[in-house]
Amino acid sequence: MTITGSGSATPDQFLSNNDLALMVDTSDEWIKARTGIGKRHLASSSVSLSQLSAQAASKALEMSGLAPNDLDLILLATSSPDDLFGSACQVQSLIGASRAVAFDLTAACSGFVFALVTAAQYIRTGSYRNVLVIGADILSRWVDWNDRGTCILFGDGAGAIVCQATETGDRLLGFEMCSDGSQNSSLNLGYQGLEKSLNTKAEITQGNYQFITMNGREVYRFAVAKVPEVIEKALYHAGLSAADLDWLLLHQANQRIIDAVADRLKITSEKVISNVAEYGNTSAASIPIALDEAIRQRKVKDGDIIATSGFGAGLSWGSAIIQWGK
Ligand code: UT7
């Protein structure tokens, strides 16, 4: 498989650190020093996850030169669909990809990497030739805006890539995916329901999803320990080492995590792609948004090798080593 197009979309409105400091007990200095984040773009009530995803998807299709009807499969990685039954079919309809089958994939901030690897399996088996992979999240709808431990981190957005079958060398060079449910409580967006008796024999619950809860220090420790390890494993499968990489592109959670991982892998800062200052943590969208920006700025060039890594709730983490260019 090869990646032939990328696109991204983020809401226009944003909240600066100084705006946040008027809402909770925090400061621009603290947020910048501890996370590297300067602002986060937020979706208003008129913006849906499906719309943001469709915008990113249309740009990726345009770059790839494919028409919507050429698509065989659409994978939407998200933890914040417009509809709990999934939003991928809605995206399919918005972009007019009537021939494609579409479904959602939920793996929080690892979602884009997991979906990219899933796309590659369908392409490698010969089942599908043209696959659209989208990472999109609107976590502002699930953040407790009174909790300074989480509300400073998250922003909204969508990113997409087009993966195609190729006869000239597979550009997913290696991958590794992991999960550990025993640490699930470190980062949750859980359902909570009230008990309700339907009759004397049947009792159910009804309720809602609650706000995001997170043990920041635990997730930080987990990321710094596991991300270098999973990248090394993916590199091993690719027959490469960190010295062969042109770019390191991690899930944009925290600049300190990005720096610590780069440090462990002995990758210099010029090779690190980061836009966390502009968007904060956009969950499944963060890797494809940063990839799209780097491609459009012509930082990433034909033949460049990029180590991507997603990590977060589950807990889940993974890495895909990709080579850009047709
Ligand atoms: O997609 C994956 C999603 N999650 C992550 O990647 C999160 C990973 N974790 C982190 O990025 C960091 O743990 C945070 C940025 C969330 C927190 O940074 P930290 O350096 O781990 O801070 P901390 O939680 O150890 O807190 C240090 C101090 C505490 O005060 P005391 O107990 O030392 O007096 C906190 O109460 O900073 C305080 N604090 C804040 N102060 C100002 C926590 N949040 C804030 C805040 N503004 N927003």
In short:
It contains ten helices and 15 strands. The termini are close together.
Shape estimate: globular
SS-based class: alpha+beta
Strand order of the largest sheet: 1-7-6-4-5
CATH architecture descriptor of the largest domain? 3-Layer(aba) Sandwich
Low-confidence stretches: none
Strand content: 25-35%
List the domain count as a whole number.
2
CATH topology of the largest domain: Peroxisomal Thiolase, Chain A, domain 1
CATH class of the largest domain: Alpha Beta
Individual helix count: 10
Helix % is 25-40%
Task: Give a list of the ligands.
Answer: oxa(dethia)-CoA
Largest sheet: 5 strands, mixed
SSE string, helices as H and strands as E: EEHHEHEHEHEHEEEEEEHEHHHEE
What integer is the average pLDDT? Answer: 97
Q: What's the number of extended β-strand segments? A: 15
CA-CA gap between termini: 10 Å
Q: Could you explain the architecture of this structure?
A:
The longest helix has 23 residues, at 216-238. 32% of the residues lie in helices and 27% in strands. The chain is globular and about 60 Å long. The protein has ten helices and 15 strands. It has helices at 17-21, 28-35, 49-64, 88-95, 111-124, 148-151, 216-238, 255-264, 276-279, 286-296; strands spanning 2-9, 14-16, 39-41, 73-77, 101-105, 130-138, 156-164, 172-179, 187-188, 191-197, 203-209, 213-214, 247-250, 305-312, 316-323. The protein has two domains: 2-164, Thiolase/Chalcone synthase (Peroxisomal Thiolase, Chain A, domain 1); 172-182 and 213-323, Thiolase/Chalcone synthase (Peroxisomal Thiolase, Chain A, domain 1, 3-Layer(aba) Sandwich), CATH 3.40.47. Strand 10 and strand 11 form a beta hairpin. Helix 3 (49-64) crosses helix 4 (88-95) and helix 7 (216-238) packs across helix 8. It has 326 residues and is an alpha+beta fold. The strands form five sheets. The protein has a five-stranded mixed beta sheet with strand order 1-7-6-4-5, sandwiched between helices.
